[in-house]
Amino acid sequence: MKTIIVACRTLQAEIELAQKNTGTSYSVEYIESGLHERPKKLSAIVQELLDTLDADRVLLCLGQCGNAMIGIKAGAFEMILPKVDDCLSLLLGSTRDKSRISYTDKAFFLTKGWLLGESTIMSQFAKSVEKYGEETALTIMEMMYEHYETLGLIDTGTGPMDELYEQTEDISRLLDLARKTYPGTVSYIEELLTGPWPKDRFIIKKPYEEIVTEDYEGML
Fold first, then answer.
1. Is the separation of the CB atoms in 148 and 108 below 8 Å?
2. 195 and 152, same structural domain?
C-alpha cells in the first residue's frame, strides 16, 4: 500500500522523529508554514496538492486550522487525519490539553518549527515598524498579544531547548511574557503513521469523500 504524508512544514522535525520511532519511511509532501493565518488559501493549496497525488492512503498531518480542512476532498485514496483544532494540539497530545494550559497559563505557544516559518512574531513586528513606525508597531503588538501572560515553548524532543530559549529572547522581551517549557509529544503523529485510528481521535475518509464540519465534533 502506497502511503503519502501531507503536512505543515512546521512539523518537519516532529514527523522525522515519529517516522524514526515507528520505523516508517513514508514520502512527505510539505505545505508552506504560516498558511494557518489564511485558512482559505491553506484549503486551496491542500486540495490542489491532493488532486495530484497517486496513493492508496494519504495521512493529513494538519489540524482543522480555522476550518481550512472543511470541504477538503479525498482523491482515489483513503484519507486519514487527526481530530484536532491545530498543530499545537497535535504536539501537546490533544485539543483538551492545549485548552487547559491556554486557560490556566494564558500561554502563547511556540515550537522550533514555528520559528523557522515564513511568518513569525518578529517578522510581523519588523513589517509593522516599516509601515507604521516603531511606536505604533509596539502598540499594535501589545493589542494583539495583551491576553497572554506566558510564552509557552513546547519541547517535542527534537532538539535542545536551550537553542529555543535563545531564539525566543527577543520575543519574550518584546511582548513582556515569561517563558515556560511544556512537555510535548510526537505520539499523536506516531498514531497517525501506524494506526489504529479510533474515531474519537481521527477522521477517516474513503476515496472521494469530503471532510465536513461534523467530523470535528467531540474533539478530545
1. yes
2. no
